[in-house]
């Protein structure tokens, strides 16, 4: 394993895994791979950790193709050459004309398909490629739109099954991800889908960029703050 891989992406990923116990001995992990940079790097990184026996677990990629994806074969071959198998599940997506949030519907459907596959095939964890930027953006959206201090958790256990959702990229930012994917030469899958990201997320992204121009540590401080809450200095009413 090359040293730059350790510093650029494996160290922050291992920090998250170790801090939140994201990988436990004997885990069977299904990774949601969209073919985009984040989940591709996640899949590759978990493959490396497995290859070098850093943790004792099994890992398989799972891609839901709603008929919108381009260049899936070179992507899949890249991972197969690396010794990782990826299932491509084809499922046509039927969009209702009155659906005001198609991205949400699509994401719900995708999760449902993955969840069912995981349960039917003995996987106990599903890994998603949400990143540090997603955590900060979600924090901002909750604050601005819902007046709530909340973001994306690194691990969630389903109430109705033994399945856990894990997010090992929460300490990794887009700059490091882009650089890693480029250096690793992972072929990226593109999508024909016309639905752009939700407007509010775009606005919160540009707001973050504006704040970071003045306070470059902003995103890192949000990550730190989310596990450093001084409850006695909030408006939460504590037991007396
Ligand atoms: N078509 C898909 N098949 C399987 N998993 C998916 C698919 N699309 C998204 N996911 C999973 O859901 C996560 C969140 O989805 P989202 O669309 O927000 O991804 P993203 O931020 O654009 O990241 P990426 O660069 O991985 O596409 C992804 O990181 C991935 O793990």
Overall tally of domains: 1
Head-to-tail CA distance between termini: 54 Å
Q: State which percent range the strand residues make up.
A: 5-15%
Helicity, as a percent range: 40-55%
Shape: globular
Rg from Cα: 19 Å
Determine the number of helices (DSSP H or I, runs of at least 4 residues). Answer: 8
The CATH topology turns out to be Rossmann fold
Small molecules held by this entry: adenosine-5'-triphosphate
Average pLDDT metric: 93
Order of helices and strands: HEHEEHEHEHEEHEHH
Tell me the number of strands.
8
Return the CATH architecture.
Answer: 3-Layer(aba) Sandwich
The CATH homologous superfamily corresponds to HUPs
- Taking pLDDT < 50 over at least 5 consecutive residues as the criterion, the unreliable ranges are none
Sheet with the most strands: spatial strand order: 4-2-1-5-7-6
Kindly provide the name of the CATH class: Alpha Beta
Describe the sheet with the most strands: 6 strands, mixed
| Protein structure class | alpha/beta
Domain tRNA(Ile)-lysidine/2-thiocytidine synthase N-terminal: 29-187
Keywords: Transferase
Pfam families: ATP_bind_3
Protein name: tRNA 2-thiocytidine biosynthesis protein TtcA
Note down, in words, how this protein is organized:
With 240 residues, this protein is of the alpha/beta class. The protein has one domain (3-233): HUPs (Rossmann fold). The chain is built from eight helices and eight strands. Strands 4-2-1-5-7-6 form a six-stranded mixed beta sheet, sandwiched between helices. Helix 2 packs across helix 6, helix 5 (132-146) packs across helix 7 (199-214) and helix 5 (132-146) crosses helix 8. The chain is globular. The model has no long low-confidence stretch (mean pLDDT 93). Adenosine-5'-triphosphate (ATP) binds next to helix 2 and strand 2. InterPro entries: Rossmann-like_a/b/a_fold, TilS/TtcA_N, tRNA_thiolation_TtcA_Ctu1. It comes from Fusibacter ferrireducens. Residues 29-187 form the tRNA(Ile)-lysidine/2-thiocytidine synthase N-terminal domain.
